[in-house]
């Protein structure tokens, strides 16, 4: 049977666990609300190609500067691919930052979210 001190210790432990759980759930909800609004944008080194990807890594916007008219189409295509990839990397970084700010980058949840997002963005390529 538990004495009063042991019962008090057990109650304190349960209260702390419940409080921690509530806080982690709040952080997870905050992250869940942020993820669908994230995007990634990148610009080519010469500034002629700009790409924006949405939360799933899908291309949302592509801007081409007038200077691409003076290039071979194959060169422009390669530059678009490289810039879209950089935009997806920017998205992955935004996810890592949001995760670190909410659930913590090193938490089990944070690592799982970052890994799942990295896999999802890679699959979009």
List keywords for this structure.
single chain, 125 residues, alpha+beta, Ybab, Chain: A, 3 helices, 3 strands, rod-shaped, YbaB-like_sf
Folded structure, characterized:
A hairpin with a 5-residue loop joins β1 and β2. The protein has 125 residues and is α+β, with helices and mostly antiparallel strands. The chain has one domain: Ybab, Chain: A (2-Layer Sandwich). This is YbaB/EbfC DNA-binding family protein.
Largest sheet: 3 strands, antiparallel
The neighbouring-strand order within the major sheet is 1-2-3
Please identify which CATH superfamily we are dealing with.
Nucleoid-associated protein YbaB-like domain
- The portion of residues forming beta strands comes to 5-15%
Helix content: 55-70%
Q: Give the overall average pLDDT.
A: 85
Total number of helices: 3
Q: What ranges have pLDDT less than 50 throughout 5 or more consecutive residues?
A: none
What is the name of the CATH topology? Answer: Ybab, Chain: A
| Class computed from helices, strands and strand pairing | alpha+beta
Annotation, overall tally of beta strands: 3
CATH top level?
Answer: Alpha Beta
User: From the 3D coordinates, which CATH architecture would you assign?
Assistant: 2-Layer Sandwich
The succession of helices and strands, N to C, reads HEEEHH
How many domain units? 1
Radius of gyration: 22 Å
User: End-to-end distance, in Å?
Assistant: 61 Å
Shape, principal axes of CA atoms: rod-shaped
């Amino acid at each position: 049977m538990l004495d009063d001190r042991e019962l008090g210790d057990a109650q304190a432990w349960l209260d702390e666990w419940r409080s921690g759980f509530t806080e982690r759930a709040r952080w997870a909800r905050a992250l869940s609300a942020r993820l669908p609004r994230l995007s990634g944008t990148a610009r080519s080194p010469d500034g002629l190609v700009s790409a924006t990807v949405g939360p799933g890594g899908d291309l949302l916007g592509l801007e081409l500067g007038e200077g691409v008219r003076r290039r071979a189409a194959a060169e422009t295509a390669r530059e678009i691919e490289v810039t879209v990839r950089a935009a997806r990397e920017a998205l992955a970084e935004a996810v890592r930052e949001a995760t670190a700010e909410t659930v913590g980058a090193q938490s089990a949840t944070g690592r799982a979210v970052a890994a799942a997002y990295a896999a999802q963005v890679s699959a979009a390529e």
